[in-house]
Design goal:
The complex is a heterodimer.
Chain A lengths: L2 H25 L9 E5 L24 H9 L33 E6 L2 E6 L5 E5 L16 E7 L2 E7 L19 E9 L2 E9 L8 E9 L14 H12 L20 E8 L5 E8 L5 E7 L2 E12 L4 E6 L4 E6 L5 E7 L5 E7 L2
Parallel strand pairs in A: 4-5
Antiparallel strand pairs in A: 1-2, 1-9, 2-3, 3-4, 5-6, 6-7, 7-8, 8-9, 10-11, 10-17, 11-12, 12-13, 13-14, 14-15, 15-16, 16-17
Chain B lengths: L2 H20 L14 E11 L5 E8 L5 E8 L2 H5 L13 E8 L6 E8 L5 E3 L10
Parallel strand pairs in B: 3-5
Antiparallel strand pairs in B: 1-2, 1-4, 2-3, 4-5, 5-6
Classes of the chains: A mainly beta, B alpha+beta.
Chain lengths: 358, 133
């Protein structure tokens, strides 16, 4: 065979392959909305799932089957348990799986290519491939942490159907279990810079009714997915967790102890400079060694902070907290005549306060 | 309840709502959120490494004894997006570290805020970079 013939045959074969590929690509339904970008969970929808029944009514307790009840009782979630005493698979760096990965405070990038929508999670770089090329779920799929996902477009809504999950993950931080029968349907739609995901879970082995919940994510232009390796510093971190999460109780060991409380008891007045630079009159009344009231004269009415757990160290550091989560951190001047400090909201935005004896 | 008070309460309540997940990976229930300690610290080691950032530091107690402490912070990824980097806290540096102490009285805390000698501050374990827009 002449060289020219071989080349011609080769070209023909290559063309056929390319043509076939082009045809296959063109057969993939086009994406009808663009979800591309880095998305971050919204604090409006918290990082904990709010579960509802199929009618959308919030559920205080989930309708567990006896099978799931037994598993749920054996789970020791963080909250009631410290990390070191929890058996949450995340603590040991096992994958959170789906849907729990949505409750992690890390961003996720959506990448759309022909035939696939890819969710690329910053947390451990887990990937969900949602096939939109018309395929079905594989038969007798081996169960996996992230499951098998297929999607179809209904207008600009992506409907994702996922099965094939293993039962090694929890649904949420509270330790609600699921079985390999878990079937999850998500309806994902974009509204400008917001991505809304309506989730319906059906797992008849674990729950007597389907469960509904929702996620809201915010577009983060300019963000890139960073590396996150759970095991990176686990040796040091677990040592630390063992220290602070152990069962030993030794509260008296906390070094900020009452020292000069008597010297602050009484009334104080001064001003608070808010984070937005406004200055408002403020007053404080330290009524005992453990409680105080700080009053801020806001134009629309007095704002009162009832501080509890007040401590004053011998060196003059004053700390206290209100039941709404507000913290006060101050310093008593050496001459005992002035208190300066911050009213710290949980958001960390500082409001400076300065008080003197009237 | 006036509007500002309401707004502050919303912020505070928001924190409690989001505090579970922020800490979900490795905890948070170790700490007494009703107590705040403000410590004049000398940094001995800063580990800006996943899964959680750690600051080791010493504090002189009221009797002058040097006590070793450790502070926990979120993932470096989350802190990088809030303006932190691996050199932002240096060994030997004297800073004020504010946070919630461990319930069991061990010298560990969840760091809420750092205040540097020049007065500038860094947020620690707080609301994530927002979100609510």
């Amino acid at each position: 065979m002449k060289v020219q013939t071989i080349v011609s045959l080769g070209c023909l074969t290559l063309s056929s392959v390319l043509l076939a590929q082009t045809r296959a690509t063109s057969q993939k339904p086009a994406h009808t909305a663009d979800f591309s970008g880095v998305w971050y969970p919204s604090s409006v929808h918290t990082f904990d799932f709010v579960w509802a029944d199929p009618q959308g009514q919030p559920l205080n307790t989930l309708p567990l089957t006896p099978w799931a009840e037994e598993k749920f009782k054996a789970n020791r979630p963080i909250g009631p348990y410290t990390a070191i005493n929890s058996n949450d698979p995340n603590v040991s760096c096992f994958p959170p799986g789906v849907p729990m990965i949505y409750t992690h405070a890390f961003p996720m990038e959506i990448i759309q290519i022909p035939g696939r929508v890819i969710m690329f999670f910053e947390y451990e770089h887990y990937v969900r491939q949602i096939f939109t090329d018309g395929r079905d779920h594989p038969k007798d799929a081996n169960p996996t942490w992230m499951g098998d996902s297929i999607g179809r477009w209904e207008g600009d809504t992506l409907v994702v159907d996922s099965t094939g999950f293993n039962d090694k993950t929890w649904l949420d931080v509270h330790g609600h279990p699921h079985s390999e029968a878990l079937h999850m349907v998500e309806r994902i739609r974009r509204d400008n810079n917001t991505l809304m995901i309506d989730i319906t879970l059906d797992d008849p082995k674990a729950y007597t009714t389907p469960l509904k919940t929702q996620r809201k994510l915010i577009l983060k232009p300019g963000w890139n997915i960073m590396e996150f390796v759970c095991e990176d510093n686990m040796v040091n971190f677990l040592d630390y967790e063992k220290k602070v999460g152990g069962q030993e109780k030794n509260a008296a060991d906390v070094p900020v102890q009452s020292g000069t409380s008597q010297s602050i008891i009484g009334d104080w007045s001064g001003a608070i400079t808010l984070a937005d630079a406004r200055s408002l009159p403020a007053a404080a009344s330290f009524s005992s060694t453990s409680t105080a009231t700080i009053t801020v004269a806001d134009p629309s009415g007095n704002i009162k902070y009832q501080l509890q757990n007040l401590t004053v160290s011998a060196s003059g550091t004053i700390t206290g907290s209100a039941t709404d989560g507000t913290n006060f951190i101050g310093e008593l001047s050496k001459d005992g005549k002035q208190i300066t400090g911050d009213i710290v909201l949980s958001s960390g935005t500082g409001h400076k306060i300065s008080l003197r004896r009237p | 309840m006036n509007s500002k008070r309401a707004a502050w309460l919303v912020l505070a309540v928001s924190f409690f709502l989001i505090s579970i997940p922020l800490l979900a990976h490795h905890g948070g229930s170790e700490y007494d959120m009703t107590k705040v300690v403000s410590l004049k610290a000398t940094v001995t080691d800063f580990q800006f490494v996943n899964p959680h950032t750690l600051i080791n530091f010493t504090v002189k107690d009221d009797s002058g004894e040097v006590i070793e402490w450790q502070g926990e912070l979120p993932s470096p990824n989350l802190l990088l997006r809030r303006g932190w980097n691996r050199n932002i806290v240096k060994s030997g540096e004297q800073i004020t570290i504010i946070g919630n102490p461990a319930k069991n009285g061990k010298k560990g805390m969840q760091v809420k805020r750092l205040i540097f000698p020049d007065g500038h501050e860094l947020p620690g374990t707080i609301l994530p970079p927002d979100s609510s827009k």
